Amino acid sequence: MVEMVAQQMLNGQATDDTQDQVFFTGVWSDAYPAILVRDPILPDSAKIQLLYLMQAGRTNPYGANPLPSVGKTARDLGKSPTTVVRDRAIIRMARWATQCRRVRDAQGRMRGLVWSLHSEPASLAETTSLDSEYMGLLEQAAAGHFDRIARRVAKLVLAAIDHDIGEGRDPLAAITPMEQRLEAMETIRTGHGRCFAGYFGDKQDSNCESGIANTDKRISNPETCESGGQGPISNFEISGTGLISNLETYDWPIDPAHAPEFETGKHRSSSSIEITTTTNREKQKSPHHFSFVHSVDDSGGSSNTPHMDSSPVHSVDTSLPPLDWPQTVDDNRKRLVQRMLQHHLPDRPGDHQEVINALAAKLADKDAPIRNLGNYVTKLCKLARAGELCPVEPPCPPERPRPPDKKLNISNLRGEIGSLLRLIEATRHTGRGNVQALEAQLARRREELRELEQAKH
């Protein structure tokens, strides 16, 4: 090492001043969030990968860093690529990381994703404002489009959202970091309650979903990604950085020898083949109603781990027509409002559209904007159940832009040309101003007039 540093000094540019060099022979020590070790939502492999990603992010602590590829992460951590992808999806669902933006070039080619890592899980309001596909990812995972461990994480996070709705709280309401930390510490101590993104019920039921931490060791016979079995396919595929996003193809290079394979119908697809998804994308844009479906997991859990309450899990009911949503409501809020409708009006699906129409009318009122979406939707649901909700016309689609009036454009151009001619004459007479610039502007206006007159005939 000493010889290498000395050779680098000799190969460098010579200067009059001497420059000493120093290198470190010890072991670098990195800080990490202490609550991460105690987080009961994340499996152990996801915790290790999150520490790995945080370590990679310290290369440039005040800027962006390249996200380690799935192949490199799998080799460094000794995991399969499929497990790396699953754990990154879990980290995203638990809100330790947020997908902020999808970047494409001018030709529409995928260039990558912008991600943000957090020292503690972000709030639902912060995540949904940055990650436009977050709620869709949770519902896909909870419906069985991932392996068993990822499904448990999704159901715990959705249980926290449903618990807030059931308690009459707005899931998007701001929560102070101190309150969130104290609540998490109490949940870790007692084994039930809310812990950041997830909620653990206080009922110890053998048929309930068990806790997440250390489930890799307890599951004996699942066809998980770790064991090489093929899990159900999702429309949230692997993206340019190896994390989960809504893409039809793999846009990032991966070692074919370690490429994960997925079942798509009768064919097996790898990372170099376009993936055909199993979910209708039009339904993703306009989700259907939810119906109650009880899901029972056959895996057991130890009695000293938190258990999730055996409440029903919402799934999409395609027998009902899709709801007509205003364009000002994004996908995350559509899904949150639907969960509120299913909780407050489960036996009155006919009133769901009336509530949405009233919500659209309120959103269109710029003078009195909605400050608390959850409370306002709850109020509308109560009025609908009492029969006191006044019917409102459904939101009208935006008008198509009218084609430009060629006659009006020609008249305007002729007026501009006349004004420019008078301005040029006055500038030459006074000798003040840039005549050449005015003449160039006049030439452009005459060319535009000529093109419009030719198109007219």
Task: Describe this protein with a few key phrases.
9% strand, 457 residues, mainly alpha, single chain, flat, 3 domains, 43% helix, two-stranded antiparallel ribbon
How much helix is in the residues? 40-55%
Mean pLDDT: 74
| Whole-number tally of structural domains | 3
Number of helices: 16
Query: What percentage of the residues does DSSP assign to strands (E)?
Result: 5-15%
Sheet with the most strands?
2 strands, antiparallel
Along the chain, the helix and strand elements come as HHHHHEEHHHHEEHEEEEHEEHHHHH
> Numbering strands along the chain, what is their spatial order in the largest sheet?
1-2
Low-confidence segments: 204-312
Would you tell me the structural class of the helices and strands? mainly alpha
Q: Report how far the terminal alpha carbons are from each other.
A: 80 Å
Radius of gyration: 29 Å
Cα shape: flat
Give me the count of strands: 10
Notes on the structure:
This protein is mainly alpha-helical. It has 3 domains: 34-281, no CATH class; 329-397, no CATH class; 407-429 and 437-456. The protein has 16 helices and 10 strands. A two-stranded antiparallel sheet has the order 1-2. A hairpin with a 5-residue loop joins strand 1 and strand 2. The longest helix is centred in the C-terminal third of the chain and has 25 residues, at 406-430.
Give a brief rundown of this model.
With 457 residues, the chain is mainly alpha-helical. The protein folds into 3 domains: 34-281, no CATH class; 329-397, no CATH class; 407-429 and 437-456.
